[in-house]
Amino acid sequence: MAARAAMQTGALALALGLGLTLSLTGCGSVYYSVSMNAAQSRIEQARAMGAETAAPYEYYYAREHMRQAEVEAADASYGDAASYAETAEQYAQKAIDFILASRKGEAK
Predict the structure, then answer these.
(1) Among 108, 26, 94, which residue's Cα sits nearest to residue 55?
(2) Which among 3, 11, 71, 77 counts the fewest CB atoms within 10 Å?
(3) Any idea what DSSP says for residue 49?
(4) Which comes out higher in pLDDT, residue 58 or 3?
């Protein structure tokens, strides 16, 4: 009876470990996807506002980080990919902020 209980406990632990591993792997890819979509939207918004010429450093820095995020995701390094995507989003937002500030200055 004790051997049977030990086997059931071992099987349960294995199942829980496998489930945890699969859920963590899935969460990483979901988090990456959310980060990637947000960054892509922000980069597109910056491009539409003319960031390629108005804020080229910030814009191209964001684009290159987005490319690196894609490379990391292709290697299933979702944490690294999400980090690159977050940096891409931040720099795209900096480009947008720079453009908006420039427009405010011109309006005065």
Answers:
(1) 94
(2) 3
(3) T
(4) 58
